[in-house]
Amino acid sequence: MNVEYTGRHYEVTPAIRKEVETGLTKILRILGDKFETKVILAVEKHRHKAEITISPRNGPLVGLAQAGDMQAAVNQALDHLETQAVKYKTRWETRKRSARKTKEVKKWNGDASQQQDLQTSVGLTQKTSVPVVVHRFPAVATTTEVHLVRSDEAVAMRPMTLEEAIKEAHFRDRDVFVFRDPKGKVMILHRTRDGKMELIEAP
Fold first, then answer.
1. Residue 65 and residue 47: Cα distance in Å, rounded?
2. With 90 as the cut, is the pLDDT of residue 154 above it?
3. CA atoms within 13 A on the CB side of 59
């Protein structure tokens, strides 16, 4: 496992390394995929901060935490990262199932060899009759029920830079995050289906 450690006003001890790598092994089992890891451990005004970033194939996941001691901060960051990893895997599996369904629908709609067609003919007599192929298509739901939930978690209360907003969106585990940049412009971060972050500037 390739882990890059950075200590800011903090010396990374073997015990903390072991704690981090034990937690990452658990996350590795959840994702079932190799990833690069960056760990930043810092002490600021007697607060211990841990930032653990992993990079699976469809975009980074970040675990952020702060506590009275480094071990507690690391464990909280790993717990947060584990929650994100479970959601990431669920999203990934849902996309794969969705792709399979799309393939099946295309098979029905576009691939003539896979369509279950009925051969019939139209005409008054056998000599004047014309062969006609009748296609059968599967029923597809046209509407879905809308479920609205109001949330303050997706809106930043203070201005922040793009980098801070990305970290905050990861920390809060939001797919949509609204914030103002230092100049007061409204920006929206959106996590696309492939896991990448997209920036939308409001007019």
1. 10
2. no
3. 19
